[in-house]
Description:
By secondary structure, the protein is mainly β. It has strands at residues 3-7, 10-12, 18-25, 33-39, 46-52, 58-60, 68-73, 78-83, 92-98, 102-103, 107-111.
Amino acid sequence: xxxxxxxxxxxxxxxxxxxxxxxxxxxxxxxxxxxxxxxxxxxxxxxxxxxxxxxxxxxxxxxxxxxxxxxxxxxxxxxxxxxxxxxxxxxxxxxxxxxxxxxxxxxxxxxxx
Length: 113
């Protein structure tokens, strides 16, 4: 049974930090990309960051460069998103994705004073 579960969302003040986690089980993959996406109210889902399982190469959307860091723990089939210097415009439901196939249910991040 495939399970992809995000955690770590919540309410934070502007300038604050959150760390999202996403743990996958029920499938294996030797290579590919793990990613984070987000969807704000009334907007389309957008890609935020990706990391290669093998090389660890990372990529980010311009709006989060220098503030967000994606990382992974291959032994635990888990991907993380460290979010610093959060802004109100980062408010969204954040989703993780494994190899373009498996999605989590999403975790809400709200940045507000």
